[in-house]
């Protein structure tokens, strides 16, 4: 019973963290796109070129992760995870999703590291003559998208990965204790 309560609490925290990460990265991506979209339809759109692929992969992973956690929470509450079959399936699914979330967050963290690296910015982004990062540029330009939103989303992704790993371990312990099929 104590293991079941731990699982329920873990799943609620997972939902909160994943939704927060999705919201932060989604808002950053939307505002970044809106601030950079071409004035006319003749110019090529950066979204259509796939420049937001890592953002979309992260958003896909976190959104599907929330759905998966809600379904596993329902299965846990209704008792579907009390036998080895259900529990072993949950261990496998959570282990795979831990890896998926780690990969998508690491890819997004690479984008963040690039944004934070000081460099000579392209002429269209230059506000001053000194070397600066894109994040500093966003701050100086007073845009609706800030790297703090992006940092928060990446942090939520890594925290969510740790929570999924812990949830996988708790399900594995539960699997060892559950009755045969």
UniProtKB/TrEMBL annotation:
Topology within the bilayer: Multi-pass membrane protein
Gene Ontology CC, one term: membrane
Location within or outside the cell: Membrane
InterPro entries: Marvel
Principal subcellular localisation of the protein: membrane
Alphabetized UniProt keyword annotations: Membrane, Transmembrane, Transmembrane helix
Keyword field contains Secreted: no
Domain MARVEL: 7-169
Protein name per Swiss-Prot or TrEMBL: ---NA
UniProt organism field: Paramuricea clavata
Taxonomic lineage of the native organism: Eukaryota, Metazoa, Cnidaria, Anthozoa, Octocorallia
């Amino acid at each position: 019973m104590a293991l079941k309560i731990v699982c329920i609490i873990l799943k609620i925290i997972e939902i909160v963290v994943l939704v927060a990460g999705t919201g932060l990265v989604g808002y950053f991506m939307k505002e970044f796109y809106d601030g950079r979209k071409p004035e006319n339809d003749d110019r090529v759109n950066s979204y259509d070129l796939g420049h937001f692929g890592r953002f979309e992969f992260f958003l896909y992973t976190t959104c599907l992760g929330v759905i998966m956690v809600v379904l596993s929470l329902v299965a846990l509450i209704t008792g579907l995870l009390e036998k080895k079959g259900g529990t072993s399936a949950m261990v496998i699914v959570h282990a795979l999703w831990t890896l998926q979330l780690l990969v998508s967050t690491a890819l997004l963290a690479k984008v963040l590291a690039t944004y934070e690296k000081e460099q000579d910015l392209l002429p269209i982004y230059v506000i001053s003559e000194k070397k600066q990062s894109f994040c500093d540029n966003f701050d100086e330009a007073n845009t609706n998208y800030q790297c703090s939103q992006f940092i928060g989303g990446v942090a939520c992704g890594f925290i969510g990965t740790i929570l999924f790993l812990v949830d996988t371990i708790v399900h594995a312990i539960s699997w060892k204790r559950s009755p045969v099929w």
